[in-house]
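Supplementary Note 3. Input sequence used for the single-chain structure prediction.
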Amino acid sequence: MRVLTALALAAALAAPAAARAQQPASPQPGTRVWDRVVATVGDTSLLYSDLLVEAEAMQAQGQAVPTQPAARDSFFRAILQRRVDDLLLLEAARRDRAITVDPTDIVTAVENQINRVQQSFGTQAAMEAELAKSGRTLDQYRQELTRTYTDQTRVQRYRQQRFGQMAPPAVSEEEIRAFFEREKGGLGQRPATLSFQQAIVKPVPSDSADARARRKAEEILAELRRGGDFEALARRNSADPSAQQGGMLGWFRQGQMVREFEQMAYALLPGQISPVVKTEYGYHIIKLEKVRGPERQARHILIRPEITDADVAAARARADSFAAAVRGGASLTELAARTSTAPEQRNLKDVLPDRLPAEYTQALATPAVGEVVGPFQINDPTGPAFVVAKITDRRAGGEYQLSDVHDYIRDRLQEEKLLARVLAELRQVTAVSVSL
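The predicted structure, written as discrete structure tokens, is reproduced below.
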């Protein structure tokens, strides 16, 4: 486990933030002043120690800090320029009353960051011990993160607002090529990628099996309404892996659950139990435990209809017919729309092969572009399923070419030009003094 120095802890483990407003401390009689103000932006002061903190955080993340005096001075002036730009944007964002921040979003971001930091140290006690070396408590660290994330959010929304009001600047092909030539050494190697279309065919339970599952779910719901213990009933009846934790799903946000489940979970109040909800996984009973800003914490009981061997065989036969149709010229994406294949899963582009499930990696390793693959069996969360795939592109790894990053560079240069315009305007209306 890597242990960061106390000085770098907040800057290295928290996301880099716009500088916070602070007033230079008054020196105590008889003490020597080591710190000093190196810039003021409006009413905000930036201290030399702020630059040292950022430099040490950069060093902790692997970036070399120059030791030669001239190079070191240039290095710190570059940090100072970035921090002054950050302060210009932050001052403007604070003045703009149209820029608002939802405190619940900030609370969620802060707690997620603290959880990540704690995991990096192993235990909360180890994290608090490292904080204590710099004279801070966990509550103080939480307050620092709250200010940091609030400032970041304000600046981000201010930039989005200002950029949206401005015409996109022109970026020439010469500028794009020059940027690529200047930066390509740091791009590393482009990984091998694979693009393919797919249809996932899942077994469909019989009407009688579906009816039995619904009846069982309704019976469990009736028992809950008579005062039954949700956790105990989940452990005894749920077909979901969360059954061992009494149905606990933990915290989730919108977009992480299937639509029907999510709509019900967000309609409940803490402590409420839902009616029976049907999704592609089966029948759910949901109990909302807690609300934390945009997140929900819930338990559920899942009753799955029985899938028989005959149901699996019927799914395989349907997948076979899909494969034959596609080999005969039919559109795989149109056939996928007749299944429960999610729209975003029907046409996958530039996928990293080693990130695919093992069944995909094995089946898609060698087929050529244009070849139809399958059906091959996968283990879907709902049970066995069959995939028909068509390879649409295959690219070997190697050095990045301009075509690989052309659009990214164009967007990056446009954003840099927009930002330069905004900063130039802000310097006309904000007092800036630099002394480094």
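Residues 382 and 432 are 61 Å apart (CA to CA). The domain at 207-303 is CATH 3.10.50.40 (Chitinase A; domain 3).
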